[in-house]
Amino acid sequence: MYVEHAFSISDEDIMMDTPHAINNRPPYKEIGLAVALLVFGTLGIILGIFMAVNKVGGDRAHGLFFAILGSILFIPGFYYTRIAYYAFKGYKGFSFSNIPPV
Fold first, then answer.
1. Which of 25, 16, 5 is nearest to 84 (CA)?
2. What pLDDT tens digit does each residue of the chain (102 aa) get?
3. Cα gap 53→44, rounded to integer Å
4. What DSSP assignment string belongs to the chain?
């Protein structure tokens, strides 16, 4: 019987867990940073590939550098933009509190 009570959720438990849901307003600075990282990362990857293919700067190293830098910017930008989008749409398990503060 102890296990049944330990893992049961009552109405009181649901009422106690609401403070994080009340303050679920979008963090505009953090979302702006995530979108900027996504945009600049995408541009870096595209320009890096273009530079590597056309040997801009004399060799392919400059293009590879920009592509790697773009991918480093793209990964967190895509991740946090996705979280913000799903939290805005109201998908279960996604909240604006999952985005770290700047």
1. 25
2. 555 555 555 555 555 555 555 556 789 999 999 999 999 999 999 999 999 999 888 889 999 999 999 999 999 999 999 999 999 999 999 999 999 998
3. 14
4. -HHHHHT---HHHHHHT-HHHHT----HHHHHHHHHHHHHHHHHHHHHHHHHHHTTTSSSHHHHHHHHHHHHHHHHHHHHHHHHHHHHHT-TT--GGGSPP-
Question: How many whole angstroms from its chain centre is CA 71?
Answer: 14
Two tokens, residue 65? 């550098």
- Taking Cα atoms as reference points, which of 30, 35, 33, 25 lies closest to residue 87? 25
pTM: 0.73
